[in-house]
Amino acid sequence: RIALPHAANATFVSNALDNLSGSNDLISVRNRGNFARPFTKVEDIQREAEQQYREKEKQLQTRLQETDQKIRELQSKKKDGNEFMLNVEQQQEIARFREEKSHIRKELRDVQHQLHKNIASLETQMKFINIGLMPLLIGIGGITLGILNRRRRKGLQPVKG
Question: Which domain holds residue 15?
Fold first, then answer.
């Protein structure tokens, strides 16, 4: 568990002592708070994906409402005043619309899943680049510079004899 300052009292006391001692030089170096620096590229991609998701969701919701309306219309057209009897054709239509309704809901879940999958994939790539790739490149650069310096030193050594 990581200890976090509750009210930053230690920082306050330290700054107050520095201020009272007459030295303002080090006060500007102190921590001035937490800064969030989000990845703008990640936010842009997330915003774009959410916009596409919202458009698709809106289309699917419209289809869902239309399907519900058709089911209600068919149920209101019960024949011969018998409230509980539907003819076979009406029952088949209602079953088809209910199947379409479940298919639309599945599409909505798939769109949401794809959105989260894309964002998670991007986060994984960014973590790999920041945690793995950059230190690897710096290490390779350091080794390359070391090899070049060693070759240069060997070439500059005086010839004996």
Answer: 1-35
> Are 10 and 26 found together in one domain?
yes
Residue 72 CA: distances (Å) to CA of 38, 67, 68, 94, 157: 48, 9, 6, 9, 94
Residues 83-136: tens digit of each pLDDT:
556 677 777 877 888 888 888 888 878 877 887 888 788 888 888 888 889 899
Q: For residues 26 and 15, what is the distance between their CA atoms, to the nearest angstrom? A: 9
Same-domain status, 49 and 31: no
Q: Are 119 and 49 in contact (CB under 8 A)?
A: yes
